[in-house]
Amino acid sequence: MRQAKGYYCAIAAAVAFGLQPLIATYAYSYGIGSNLLAFLKVLIMVPVFAIACICKKESLRLSKKQAADICVLAFTGAALTSSLLFASYRLIDTGMATSLNFAYPVFVLVLGALFYRDRFSKATWISLFICVCGVSLFCDLSSEFSWKGFGWALLSGLTYGIYVLYMEKSRIMESISFLAYTFYFFLFASLPACCFSSHYLPVN
After folding, report:
1. How many CA atoms are closer than 13 Å to the CA of 110, on its beta-carbon side?
2. What mean pLDDT, rounded, does the chain reach?
3. How confident is the model at residue 203 (pLDDT cuts 50, 70, 90)?
4. CA 175 → CA 45, 160, 189, distances in Å?
5. Is the pLDDT confidence value at 65 over 60?
6. Nearest to 133 by CA among 163, 103, 153
């Protein structure tokens, strides 16, 4: 039963993420900027998880190390990744941008090998090659192609890859509950996202 619930949650998360480009395009039609949208995406989750923590009576105490780790994770995994990805949506096809963002497993493996000397099997490297080939199929180098948009999308994959790798190496989830972590994650991400929403990452 618990495993089935996990599958349902994973499917729901995939559907929600898939709707993200459509929501972004709709918001842009009303004049909302890409960085402001990234900020709102982060900010709206803070009260949601604050209420969840209160209802579950979760402890919100943080050590200095936990706070530092969550700051790094929030900056890379939420503030930077969302701002870069939403900026790319304004310049290139949303399907291409999202696919480039999903190149993050490549960066996880490469950065893990470079900085942590992680070793991977041949099957892992074959999977990595297939991933690169799959992402490249979504790249349409037509006359309307924007290298700036391509760069923003690829960088969003890099920052998310850093987030995934750092989360694993910091082992933050072993010392804090999921709800408390997620509350602080969005809370700490809201400040840099707010700064980005003012004037950073221009797309014009």
Report:
1. 13
2. 86
3. very low
4. 22, 22, 20
5. yes
6. 103
